[in-house]
Amino acid sequence: MSVLVVGAGGHAKVVIATLRASGAEIAGMLDDAPEASPVLGVPVVGRTEVLSSHAGQAVIAIGSNRVRQRIAGEYPSVAWATVVHPAAVVHESVALGPGTVVFAGAVLQPDTVVGRHAIINTSATVDHDGDIGDFVHVAPGCNLSGGVTLGEGVFLGVGGAALPGATVGAWTVVGAGGVVVRDLPANVTAVGIPARPLARP
């Protein structure tokens, strides 16, 4: 398959490497920044507006959950590619939504469901029956126990973890190394062990 990569920043490097490892052809990159330059030899061939007439597949290679949500919403007719590194372990019962990327060393265990445009980053693990929402970013080295639910747009920082059955509400951010031992509400930032919401100013 030939895939157009949306975004020309640091996250795009890992997406491009994953595409190449999976045997995909890269059609070029799109970026709205005038200073955008080639990444790993892949040229910038236009702005994101090219998606409105793009007939092939594309993937959003941008780490920001909100930006991925915006771009996906602006171009709903695009054939969004689901990209899995061959060094990831994804059980055959796992369901991956369009636009989702799974990086090297990640492990997704049986009956996990991952929504649209999610990122399962390098060496992250999601155990059985995980429910990972749209536009979620599970950062490198995270470990989710069985039956964990991450609502839409959740960001789980580097090295974070969640205990069995825990739920994190939509658009909540869990800081690096945070451990979710009980349910967290939506739209908060939580840090620490156990992860607790920061007091609002």
UniProtKB/TrEMBL annotation:
Belongs to the transferase hexapeptide repeat family. The keyword Nucleus does not apply. Acetyl-CoA binds at H137. GO terms for molecular function: transferase activity. Residues 3-72 form the PglD N-terminal domain. The record marks D129 as: Increases basicity of active site His. Substrate binds at G63. Keywords: Transferase. PANTHER family: ACETYLTRANSFERASE, UDP-N-ACETYLBACILLOSAMINE N-ACETYLTRANSFERASE. This is Transferase. The active site is at H128 (proton acceptor). InterPro entries: AcTrfase_PglD-like, PglD_N, Trans_hexapeptide_repeat, Trimer_LpxA-like_sf. It comes from Rubricoccus marinus. The keyword Transferase applies. It holds the Pfam family PglD_N.
